[in-house]
Automatic annotation (TrEMBL):
Pathway: Cell wall biogenesis; lipoteichoic acid biosynthesis. Substrate binds at H198. It is found in: Cell membrane. It is a multi-pass membrane protein. Its main location: membrane. This is Sulfatase. Keywords: Cell membrane, Manganese, Membrane, Metal-binding, Transmembrane, Transmembrane helix. Mn(2+) binds at E38, T82, D257, H258. One of its GO terms (cellular component) is plasma membrane. It comes from the Bacteria. GO terms for molecular function: metal ion binding. The active site is at T82. Belongs to the LTA synthase family.
């Protein structure tokens, strides 16, 4: 065991956040769907274009009484984009400062990831994605994370017209995934990764059901069309859940993985949002992405807690009644009253309910104005927390430290037990 791990274990112990007991185990034994909403930003929720809601199905879910919706939930990805989001959501570890940890360390490192944890609590685990299995090294990283199944594009009948951009069109993908989902022994943990709402936001004519925006920025104006298409695919999926009765014994978690419109498009964002002179502060605020947890009978509502992707695993484990007490996780339960509302970005910037740091500037989160009156000690305290956690997380990944870390009741994943090759029999 390394001394490096000792200091990290100590940090975990000293900073452990007790989850909200009111929610402990409310989803125990339920199936879990994790639906990855590609490039979907929070501002699309309730957004109107041409007199219409762009995402009516997601809006409906967002406002339902049995959906826990978050409106201050941020993506925290770095260069690994989708891969960083997946890594954070299922491991509560940050992506690396450069590259994608799923690619560089996904094959060789030891992990204590959501699929492995839930597998050991009787769950069948599967990931679904309509792109080639090697993208982001998923076919290897998923073994390290303990996924029983990985349904990649190998498992779908791809016909002419089925694909756009990085893979299958979402409606076809979700529809064709359903037949596999229906065969999974319950309870299951199923992650479905959509992809049509991906840069450069192109979509065939017959699937366009709302007009493009008119900012004049070509890479931005198709965004509402692919976002609408993604939304319709989710609407169809929720209908399928009702038809099968799966809505009665499942929890559905939806999240946007990262921004769709990068900070190279501030002019267009200014036009879309009506914010004059859309600046770096605004860009930081627009890193908000949807995060919703929907389940029959869940005590829901719109929750204003500040948090991000790093916090998902602890939040879900608590709902599922699985203790994370001895795990190395850099996030914490979003529903806990003690949840520290400091959202770290991968470059060391951060957002709290009061302060937003971008580069060397500190803004008042509420007014958007640079705030010169924030005490230096306060800035240092927050910056320190953020950089400490990012660098400790990097040490876990770079040093493969989880290979030394034991969690009572958790058995190490043996990658050799897994194969995602489609049998030809
Ligand atoms: C492709 C996909 C895209 O398989 O998940 O990843 P991104 O470009 O968003 O990181
Ligand atoms: Mn992505």
């Amino acid at each position: 065991k390394s001394s490096d791990l000792d200091s990290i274990e100590k940090y975990m112990k000293n900073n452990y956040v007790t989850p909200n007991v009111e929610y402990t185990g409310v989803a125990k034994g339920k199936n879990v769907f994790v639906i990855h909403l590609e490039s979907l930003q929070q501002f699309m929720i309730d957004f109107k274009w041409d007199g219409e809601e762009v995402t009516p199905n997601l809006n409906k879910l967002y406002h339902e009484d049995d959906t826990l919706s978050f409106d201050n939930f941020f993506n925290q990805v770095g260069q690994g984009k989708t891969a960083d989001a997946e890594l954070m959501l299922e491991n509560s570890l940050f992506g690396l400062p450069e590259g994608s940890a799923m690619v560089t360390d996904g094959t060789t490192n030891t992990f204590q990831a959501a699929p492995a944890i839930l597998d050991q609590h009787g769950y069948t685990t599967a990931s679904f994605h309509g792109d080639v299995p090697s993208f982001w090294n998923r076919d290897n990283a998923y073994k390290s994370w303990g996924y029983d199944y990985f349904f990649s594009s190998d498992y779908y009948k791809i016909k002419k017209d089925y694909e756009v951009g990085y893979g299958m069109k979402d409606k076809i993908f979700l529809k064709d995934s359903a037949k596999y989902v229906e065969q999974l022994p319950q309870p299951f943990y199923a992650k479905l990764i959509t992809v049509t709402n991906h840069y450069p936001y192109t979509l065939d004519k017959k699937n366009q059901s709302i007009s493009k925006t008119d900012t004049g920025d070509k890479t931005v104006d198709g965004y509402v069309q692919t976002a609408r298409y993604l939304d319709e695919s989710i609407g169809e999926f929720m209908n399928w859940m009702k038809e099968t009765g799966l809505d009665k014994n499942s929890m559905v978690v939806l999240y946007g993985d990262h921004y769709g419109i990068s900070d190279n498009h501030k002019k267009a964002m200014s036009k879309l949002t009506g914010i004059k002179g859309f600046n770096d502060f605004d860009n930081a605020q627009y890193q908000r992405v949807p995060f919703m947890i929907h389940m029959d009978g869940l005590k829901g509502g719109i929750n204003h807690t500040y948090g991000g992707e790093i916090d998902v695993l602890p939040t879900l484990l608590n709902l599922l009644g699985v203790s994370d007490k001895n795990m190395i996780q850099f996030g914490s339960d979003l529903l806990s009253k003690d949840h520290p509302q400091v959202v770290a970005f991968r470059n060391g910037d951060f957002v709290t309910p009061n302060i937003t740091k971008v580069g060397s500037s500190y803004y008042n989160t509420k007014t958007g104005k640079v705030d010169k009156k924030i005490p230096a000690t306060e800035k240092a305290k927050l910056s320190n927390k953020v950089t400490t956690e990012l660098s400790l997380s990097d040490r876990v990944i770079n040093g493969d430290l989880l290979r030394f870390h034991t969690v009572p009741g958790f058995t190490k994943v043996n990658k050799k037990d897994y194969s995602y090759k489609k049998s030809t029999a």
